[in-house]
Design a protein that fits this description.
- The complex is a heterodimer of chains A (200) and B (664).
- Chain A is built from six helices and one strand; from the N terminus they run βαααααα.
- In chain A, α1 packs antiparallel against α5 and α4 runs antiparallel to α5.
- Helices cover 66% and strands 1% of the residues of chain B.
- Chain B is built from 20 helices and two strands.
- The chains are: A mainly alpha (200), B mainly alpha (664).
- At the A-B interface, β1, α1, α5 and α6 of A face α7, α8, α9, α19 and β2 of B.
Chain lengths: 200, 664
């Protein structure tokens, strides 16, 4: 409908922030189903190597350990950004967001490096069912991390431009949920994909 | 990957010269679009259509647009259906009038359209118009996201429609089973159209699910406990939960198929370690809950209709609620019954067979509740009531054949036969479509302020139900006679009489659709006689009948106090209805935005270019969607204030109408 009254724009009510947080949780649950099904698919296809390489030929524990360290630390630094947000300290928020961004970018770089190495060795996603499932699961997580990085950039700009206003801080809280969610998924990937792959 | 500027899009491949029927369909589609665009231009209504409708964030208008989309797609899907019936009626020992390639496209698009672009928008539209009003809310929780959902659904529908003009549609059936849907056997664009249409609209559906859950759980009027919600709200809640849990499975399934097709991956291929059984599992993990996503809202509509036109409180409200939630839960435990013949062990098949039969129990509870509501009620035979009565009888028959199919040994005989086709149409036509049509005729006056013609409505009902029995009962028989589904031609002359009866049934249904069109035209022309100024033409029992028709943008100037399941009925009895406050408060309403249309349009561009492998456009469209969303996130103030005095003006008009009708 077109505005009937005068155009005094107002900020949303308090309840609106609760609703957004709840809606975001629902989105995360829905996203978790996507990952659950990709995990299940990976689990089913882990043995379908079609005469190609298997996990133990491809995965490197130190490399995965490095990725894990970067991502878990980025969750910690995001937590510190959230604490700074609670304290209303804008510069510390920006600083921790920056650190989180760099760690996330490092994680992504390591992942791309790993993928690149596998593809050049002829172990790309078109090699076997196992590798299709591996690349899809891990890069879906990677795409989420990339989206999270874009989200961090957008929020950094918002914090700079708008300060820690109520709408901005509520968005930061949801970004936090998203970022920690990706951490949990990664722990799943580490335990379901890499560890059994290396130990096998 | 294809790196040409226009991907694999070439005029020779793209235009539908493979069949004169397809050329005809393409011409009709293009002419239809040109007629609409021409009419709006000729009437100089673009500004109106853009500012009042396309950019609207009002849940009622979004709902109306959903229903309009659904009705258009109902006609398109029905044209597919009657073409199949005509082909099978004549294709004994002959090729009929459709080449096999085209026939396969038609049964694929019929199923895809009816499920994703008729039923889904129809139910989402009715929910949008009614549920916020039934819970006494002023809006949905996320009005902008609502608009995005609508335009993503429209973008998906647009992809299916344009596949008739540019390129071809899938020939792999609405379920798209690999390996036939894989790149090896289906290298063209058909399956890609199917994938991206579903992918784009599926995301819209997931967002709708989130929106409705938050709206129902967070925006109920004071006093409306969960156990005081109208049943339609309960079934909407259940459907929305199923949407957010089940639709990701469809997203994953079609995404993996797309990866197989584009990047030569091996999820579902025959060779390379693919596992096509995984596709069928993933697909039906979505597919079975989807059946209840379609049917549960209709159950809610029937509950409203039966109780209103029996002028009685719903019998067994609590049992209906528990039955709804039980069905929602059980719907995730039965997916394997769609492929008993895949050859899982006897134990697995037995488990899923029994779970399937168990669903009949809560469904049976519901049927008895509706019957008991009718018992000793003062029944008005409004068309909506006829749809409900027709549903109860017909749906029970479909349920019986479902229990039959739930027995794995029997399923081995009937799998993939026309018996199955008859069964699921016997569930979905009465169980979903009749419900939506009942809701359409019941709530039309709420949305537009005048009632629909009842005589043509009854005509539509009788044509539909008679046509249904004529069209689908023969398919049960044919299934027992061994006829497989999706046959483009056949050599067994004993089948033909039944196929002729089925074709006759389709013609009778065509008469039903014609009645629906005439009903709409007649009602619009007689709208002044049929005007409903009270907002409550049927002596309604729930809160949506408390608002004016059509409702004010804010629905309720004063949030109602709820004390009973039939909240409005309770107010009427206690004389607390239509009470005016001393002063009206300011109300915040969402500001219109074109961002939803933009995202939908970009999603269409993305889908179209992904189908044709025009990757640079697809990437640009995705980036543009991201940029739109990011830009939108910078807006903190998305609402404007409708001042109390403006509210009072609108309400004065409403109360003048009420006084004129002698309601006050």
């Amino acid at each position: 409908m077109s505005p009937v009254g005068d155009d005094t724009a107002l900020l949303p009510h308090d309840e609106a922030y609760d609703e957004r947080a709840f809606g975001f949780w629902l989105y995360l649950m829905s996203d978790a189903i996507i990952f659950a099904l990709l995990f299940a698919t990976y689990q089913i296809m882990a043995g379908d190597i079609a005469g190609g390489p298997q996990g133990s030929d491809l995965f490197s524990l130190p490399h995965t350990f490095g990725e894990t360290l970067l991502l878990l630390t980025s969750s910690l630094t995001f937590g510190l950004a959230s604490l700074a947000l609670d304290a209303g300290n804008r510069r510390r928020v920006l600083a921790w967001l920056g650190v989180t961004f760099v760690l996330g970018l490092g994680f992504l770089a390591m992942e791309i490096h790993e993928f690149h190495g596998m593809i050049t060795r002829g172990a790309g996603p078109d090699r076997s069912g196992f590798l299709s499932a591996f690349f899809t699961l891990v890069s879906t997580h990677g795409l989420h991390v990339s989206a999270g990085l874009v989200f961090i950039l957008v929020m950094t700009v918002q914090v700079v431009v708008k300060g820690l206003s109520r709408p901005v801080s509520s968005r930061l809280e949801r970004l936090g949920l998203f970022w920690h969610f990706l951490d949990i998924v990664w722990i799943g990937i580490f335990s379901v994909v890499y560890l059994p792959g290396i130990l096998r | 990957m294809d790196m040409r500027i226009l991907g694999r899009l070439t005029a020779a491949d793209a235009l539908p010269f493979y069949s004169w029927v397809a050329v005809g369909g393409a011409v009709v589609t293009v002419l239809g679009l040109l007629t609409i665009v021409g009419a709006i231009t000729f009437l100089r209504k673009w500004r109106y259509v853009w500012t009042e409708w396309m950019t609207s964030l009002d849940h009622k208008r979004i709902g109306i647009m959903y229903v309009m989309l659904a009705l258009v797609m109902l006609v398109r899907g029905f044209v597919d259906a009657i073409m199949m019936r005509a082909q099978q009626a004549v294709a004994l020992n002959s090729t009929g009038y459709l080449p096999p390639e085209h026939f396969d496209q038609i049964f694929s698009s019929h199923g895809t359209i009816m499920i994703f672009f008729m039923a889904m928008p129809f139910l989402t539209g009715l929910i949008n118009i009614i549920v916020p009003q039934q819970i006494g809310a002023r809006d949905v929780a996320f009005p902008f996201m609502n608009s995005v959902s609508l335009w993503l659904t429209a973008a998906g529908a647009g992809l299916v429609l344009i596949s008739l003009v540019v390129g071809r549609f899938s020939t792999a059936g609405w379920t798209g089973y690999p390996p036939y849907s894989g790149a090896e056997y289906n290298p063209g664009v058909g399956v890609d159209y199917w994938i991206w249409a579903i992918q784009v609209s599926g995301i819209g559906t997931t967002l709708s699910g989130i929106n409705f859950i938050v709206t129902i759980l967070k925006r109920r009027a004071p006093g409306m406990k969960l156990m005081r919600m109208p049943l339609f709200c309960w079934t909407t809640l259940a459907t929305s939960i199923l949407m957010i849990f089940a639709f990701p499975a469809l997203t994953v399934t079609t995404a993996l198929l797309a990866l197989d097709r584009i990047f030569d991956m091996h999820f579902f291929t025959n060779a390379g370690g693919g596992n096509l059984m995984n596709y069928i599992n993933l697909f039906w993990i979505w597919g079975h809950p989807e059946v209840y996503i379609l049917i549960l809202p209709a159950f809610g509509i029937y509950s409203s209709v039966v109780s209103t036109f029996a002028a009685k409180r719903l019998f067994g409200y609590k049992s209906l609620v528990y039955a709804t939630m039980a069905i929602a839960l059980l719907s995730f435990t039965v997916w394997l019954h769609h492929f008993f013949t895949m050859g899982a062990g006897a134990g697995v098949n037995a488990f899923f067979g029994i779970a399937t039969m168990v669903i009949a129990v809560p469904t049976g509870v519901k049927v008895f509740d509706w019957l008991m509501t009718l018992f000793r009620g003062r029944i008005t035979f409004h068309p909506s009531m006829l749809w409900a009565l027709g549903f109860i009888v017909t749906f029970v028959i479909g349920g019986m054949t479902g229990v039959l199919l739930a027995l794995p040994p029997a399923d081995y005989l009937m799998h993939n036969s026309t018996f199955l086709v008859a069964h699921f149409h016997n569930m979905l036509i009465p169980g979903a479509l009749f419900g939506y049509l009942a809701g359409y005729m019941f709530w039309f006056p709420k949305a537009f302020g005048f009632t629909l013609d009842e005589r043509w409505g009854k005509g539509a009902f009788w044509c539909w139900i008679i046509g249904f029995y004529l069209a689908f009962m023969p398919l049960y028989v044919l299934g027992f006679m061994g006829m497989a589904r999706r046959m483009e031609r056949y050599e067994i002359s004993a089948w033909q009489p039944f196929l002729l009866i089925a074709a006759l049934g389709a013609v009778v249904i065509l008469a039903g659709i014609t009645c629906l069109v005439i009903q709409l035209v007649v009602s619009i022309r007689k709208r002044n006689e049929k005007r409903d100024l009270t907002g409550d033409p049927w002596d309604g029992r729930t809160l949506e009948w408390l608002t004016s028709s059509p409702p004010a943008p804010y629905n309720f100037a004063v949030l109602p106090q709820v004390r009973d399941i039939d909240a409005l009925h309770d107010m009427k009895r206690h004389g607390s209805v239509y009470v005016r406050p001393k002063q009206y408060e300011d109300i915040l309403l969402p500001i219109n935005t074109g961002a939803g249309v933009l995202i939908g349009g970009l999603a269409f561009v993305f889908g179209f270019s992904a189908v044709w492998h025009i990757w640079w456009v697809a990437a640009a469209a995705l980036l543009a969607i991201l940029a739109t969303a990011a830009a939108r996130s910078f807006r903190d103030k998305t609402e404007f204030c409708l001042t109390g005095s403006k509210v009072q003006e609108i309400e004065n008009r409403h109360f003048r109408d009420l006084a004129r009708e002698g309601v006050l």
